[in-house]
Amino acid sequence: MFNPFYLYSSSILIVLGVYQLNWSNLFPKMSSGLLVFLVMTVILSAYLGFLSQKQLTKLVDNTGNNIPRNISSSKSNFSITSRLLWIITLLIWIGYIIEFFYVGKIPVIEYIIGRQYDYRTFGIPTFHVLIVTADAFFAVFLSFLFFKLKKIYLLIQYIICLIPSFLIYSRFLMLEIVLCSFFVFLVISKKIKWKSWVLVALCVFILLYGFGLIGNVRSENQTNQTKNPFDSSLIMEIGGATNSFKNLPISKSFFWSYIYIASPLANLQETVNKTKKVDYQAKGLIGFVNNNFVFDFISKRVNGILGIQDKNISQISPLLTAGTVYSKSFVYLKWVGLVLMFLFIIVVNMIILFILRKSVFLIPALAILDTIMIFNLFQNMLIYSGLSFQLIYPLIIQLFLKGRKLTVDGQTI
């Protein structure tokens, strides 16, 4: 069972291990201060995972892995029918269709016909956040229902909810939905045979290799070079590949994965090295809170209202922009900012798990928290509304249910 506290610790340790390979000349040497901080957070988070694991496992067993059983209708239950699920799916699609008419374009078609279009500008302000996050959360919930009830129409609805991420050309949206669904599967499955883990490891290996090949094609397409998916010379030049990596008897396409996994930590170290002054005045503190703890679609508007200029992190390269969940907090308050950010991560996880401890939405929420812990390696996903705002929906629905059990087609969940 994937405890988000354990996942935080393991993901940080993996990135630290990858960073120590020293395959890029661009990466600064890790300072003892940053290393001690990260190791301490790993230890503390692992300890919290140890304290919560038994109770969390018990809660998951009681809310998500019980055997479905037929029940009679009761006022104490809230019933969801397949018809209602189809209606929700239709409403989500209507929301996207409205956006397509508003923008006048479908991003994936623009890309196919070769027109320049920034998919990040797609959508109706604010409404886009609501429709995308509703789609993502609903898809994750459908995956939970499918793994639990094994009904094919749930899988069909899940696939239908994935299609918009392709149409708006949002690879991250598709990736986060699939990864959340994967965590749902792992939590529900509980015990997975070692052969399955070998298969997962093999899939990860293939994905990392494929990621490199796709990266080669895309980068050569942008520079109008001959498209050779096995030529990684461009990324090795951009990423400053060391001779030790060049001499390794492995495909150089793996350098893409190395750079994307380790460069955020390199940018964090670069930020630590180059941040000299911080603003402890009221406006600086407000800027820290607003730009590190508040949903991004809200914080941008608050910045404009209060005249706050968001701060940028230091980067080892203009092309490598990610900086982990911690970089921006360091820019604002240095080491105090890092400590407060770690506490924020812990508190958010605790609050969500506590509120939903007896909810049918515990497993989907747990999967979303796990996904946030993974993507926090790249940037602050707790304020990235495209992912973290999904957690608002189960909290609201749980208030509406008021302790009532949820039934789907006459079966308890």
SSE map:
Elements: H1 4-19, H2 32-63, E1 77-80, H3 82-103, H4 107-112, H5 127-149, H6 152-167, H7 171-189, H8 194-222, H9 233-238, H10 243-246, H11 254-274, H12 282-293, H13 296-306, H14 327-355, H15 362-375, H16 385-388, H17 392-401, E2 405-408, E3 411-412
Parallel strand pairs: 1-2
Antiparallel strand pairs: 2-3
Helix pairs in contact: 1-2, 1-11, 1-15, 2-14, 3-5, 3-6, 5-6, 5-7, 5-15, 7-15, 8-11, 11-14, 12-14
Characterization of the model:
The protein is built from 17 helices and three strands. The protein has one domain (4-412). A three-stranded mixed beta sheet has the order 1-2-3. With 413 residues, it is mostly helical. The chain is globular, with a radius of gyration of 22 Å. Helix 5 runs parallel beside helix 7. The model is unreliable at 64-74 (pLDDT under 50). The chain has helices at residues 4-19, 32-63, 82-103, 107-112, 127-149, 152-167, 171-189, 194-222, 233-238, 243-246, 254-274, 282-293, 296-306, 327-355, 362-375, 385-388, 392-401; strands spanning 77-80, 405-408, 411-412.
